[in-house]
Structures are given as C-alpha cells and as structure tokens.
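Most newcomers find our protein records easier to grasp once they have seen one. Read left to right, the backbone structure tokens trace the chain's path through space. Once this layout is familiar, the rest of the handout is easier to follow. The record below serves as our worked example for the rest of this section:


***
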Amino acid sequence: MEITSFSVSQDRTTLNLVISDAATITTLKLWTAETYKDYSLAIDLSAKLTASATENISITPADLGEPYFDGVYFIQAEDPDEVSEAITADTTRYKECVLNELLEMGVCDECLKTTSVKLLNAQTMLRGLEDAVSLGFTDEIISIIIALDKYCSDSLALKIGPGDRNILDIIGSFF
C-alpha cells in the first residue's frame, strides 16, 4: 500500500488522494498543521474507502468541516501491515500576505530601507514552507507555519518597527 498522490486541485475545491494496493486499508486519517498527530483531533476519512485496489478519493472542505482549504494537510493510510503518509498544502493565504505587503510598500525608497528585509524574510519562509512540504519535513513545516501565521496576522504584518526584531529573530525560538 502506498499513497502515490496527494494534492490540492487547481481550483482549490478538493484534495485529491490516490492510493495504490489499497484493498486492505483499514483507516484513513487527516490532520492540519495545528492538529498534526493528535489522534483525538484527527479527521477520520475511513468512510471514503471503497476497498478497491486503487483508491481515488476526493476530499472537500465540507468533509473537514472547513469553508475552504487553507494551510498544510497531512494524511495517513493504514492497513494491517503498513502505514503510508503524505503531505500537501494550499499556501494561497501566505502568498497573498506577501503580495499585499509588497504592494503596500509600493515604490517608497524609505520603505525599502526599513521593511524590505522583513518582506524578504517572509518570502524566504514561504519558499521554505513549499520545500519542506515537498520533502516531507514535518517539524520544519510546523515551525514555518507558526512564523508565517504570526507574520501574516493583522497585528504583526510588517508593523514591526525599525530597531525591533525581524521575522527571522521571531522564528528563531521555534527551531
């Protein structure tokens, strides 16, 4: 048994999951970055299993009790002999955050001196998140999400003044 594909659809309306050699899978669980590996908070998707040799499963936001996909999703399939795991992400919110902050800077020369480093750090973290997801680095994914959530919150997004800690200092405590 192997999860061969787990991805967010182009239109962001479904998580698409393909599992090969899947006839004996007994459980299918999903977590977000906030709930990862807390089995009491796992979303049980076992009812979507059909006992087919190859499972092609579409997961909607409604299946997760969410209005839309946002963030990182971890899936785990288990059969009597093995466990297979995969990770996918919808990073639209973080991309939008970085782009909005970039647009706010505009062509302000003074802004480039005071906020561009913070913006570059956020862009680097976003790229790091995408790399961590593709490489399956779970601990790094969770640490980067915590930092990006802080950065992209209304209260912190580029409101850290000159002389204050930059975003890499903020995430340093998580590593």
Observations:
- The chain has two domains: 2-90, 92-172.
- DSSP finds five helices and seven strands in the chain.
- The longest strand covers residues 71-78.
- Residues 154-175 have pLDDT under 50 and may be disordered.
